[in-house]
Amino acid sequence: IVIPDNVEKIGNYAFCVCGNLERVILPCSLSSIGAGAFFGCSKLKDFVIKNKEAFPVSSMSAFSSSATLTVPNGSAKNYRDLGGFWEQFISIKEESLTVKNGADFDAFSAY
Asked: Distance from CA of residue 110 to its chain's centroid?
């Protein structure tokens, strides 16, 4: 699922027990994930967030710990240091941003 670029908040229990949810792509505008938002998403493997700034998230948003968190280049430390929700990921990897045709091209758009 790709959350649109203008979304700032994922509400409480928004994707709770979405058993077939495998990939989530969150916009850089996102600054809040509600309690239980991804609770019970046992097939979730890829969690991509375009926001360079980590923000606190309720630990009740937990899901299977076999998911990988992908964040913008240079921001993995921000997420690791914040802990909490962000600690549950099996790994945190960075994707670089590149320039294409004079405009910012987001490597995440390939997902």
From this structure: 15
Rounded Cα distance, 71 and 4, in Å: 17
Which is it for strands 98-100 and 103-105: parallel, antiparallel or unpaired?
antiparallel
- Kind and range of the H or E element at 93? strand 91-95
Where is 100: in which H helix or E strand? strand 98-100
Per DSSP, the residues of 1-39 read -B--TT--EEPTTTTTT-TT--EEEE-TT--EE-TTTTT
Tokens read off for 108: 């995440």
**Paired tokens of 20:** 């077939």
Q: What are phi and psi of 40, to 5 degrees?
A: 80, 10
- pLDDT tens track for 10-32: 999 999 999 899 999 999 999 99
3-state secondary structure of 57: coil
3 state DSSP class of 109: helix
